Amino acid sequence: MEKLKKRSWAEPFKIKSVELLKMTTREDRERALEEAGYNTFLLKSEDVYIDLLTDSGTNAMSDVQWAGLMVGDEAYAGSKNFYHLEEKLHQYYGYKYLVPTHQGRGAEHMLSQILIKKGDYIPGNMYFTTTRLHQELAGGTFVDVIIDEAHDPTNLHPFKGNIDLQKLESLINKVGAKKIPYVCIAATVNMAGGQPISMENLRQVRELCSKHGIKIFFDATRAMENAYFIKVREQGYGNKSMAEILREMCSYTDGCTMSAKKDLLVNIGGFLALNDYDIFEEARNMVVVYEGLHTYGGLAGRDMEAMALGIVEAIQEDHMKARIGQVEYVGEKLQSIGVPIVLPVGGHAIFLDAKKFLPHLQQIEFPAQTLAAELYLESGIRSMERGIVSAGRNKDTGDHYYPKLELVRLTFPRRVYTQAHCDVTAEAVEAVYERRNEIKGLEMVYEPKYLRFFQARFKRKM
Length: 462
Ligand SMILES: *Cc1c(COP(=O)(O)O)cnc(C)c1O
Prior knowledge:
With 462 residues, this protein is an alpha/beta fold. The chain contains 16 helices and 14 strands. The protein is 40% helix and 13% strand.
């Protein structure tokens, strides 16, 4: 017998409760997809076997977090769970002031409205849908200052989330520091394929911004996953703890917006965190109008408790090793059968390169949307388009944005699926890849005004 040489990692948890899934036939899925207008966002969850649509709010909570729900203090004001969350924010992220919000976009909304004036520019390491929209609704213009490597799906740069300092500096020189209320830095940049930013780059951006008196706000949604990449990839960080790395990352920024539905192992929640008292004052005022009182921000006490406990579980290195290890496992399988994916494999998702997967389709035939639909038909696996549909239209000219990257995202919920689910997923992608030449594109038949990828409808091209 051949000897097993590889030492595998395994999950640092066992399963206590299960959720049964409905198994569907190809005819079932054909019907469901038709009804959903070929948009995986419009499928009923019941009709999905393995749901890789998003890692947002889809996490499995631990028994400790579930127990935490029972100690929810549902007082309207001054809930003890708020103070628990505040304590963990101070301890792990290091920011001074906390404003809870129902989810990440609640924080983005307030930050954008408070800091952005009409005609301002907000540089960032690639756009994120809700982040950019809130910047634009506040009268600002987003400017992408990510390094060029991020737009190349095969470039193996270990920190493709880095900011190009020259791009940032020339924007500052062109429009002037006064027109830049802050730089928005995202960790493990979602739209680039879940790619991290390095500590060195964060430090350099801080230096440049301090020179010009420009603030930095961190999209800390996946900052802990980014911290793990710094630990394993960046020189000098191998022996530092995840907690130390996260604290250092945050120390180069003036505050953060947070979607706790990702890193923090909960199903709902978010916050705005700040070091500046005046901005905090305004946010605390504004949250009452849009979210709820400043000690609950649209959340139940129990949700804040689950978040506070989630911070402590998510920062564990064993957790992150299994979390990112699972994504890498699927990535390696797909690479071994020659499926084109974004490299290096990201922290939360595998991104199929739809332009290479379906080279016979024009971008206006929505290759990524098409591929996501085909993968569902094949196997009941739900994924998401991250390409021309997600990119939307230019607000001035009304034309489609034509992003360089046309991707299908297979996003892994934290602590939800097993290795066998991963194997089934890789096999389904392989099956679609084998019949790729017969696949026809789509046509958009309904287009909503904002964030169109959520609700747009399509039909098959003849
Ligand atoms: C999800 C997400 C947001 C928005 O947060 P919601 O909780 O969905 O409102 C912002 N930025 C990034 C990077 C995200 O992934």
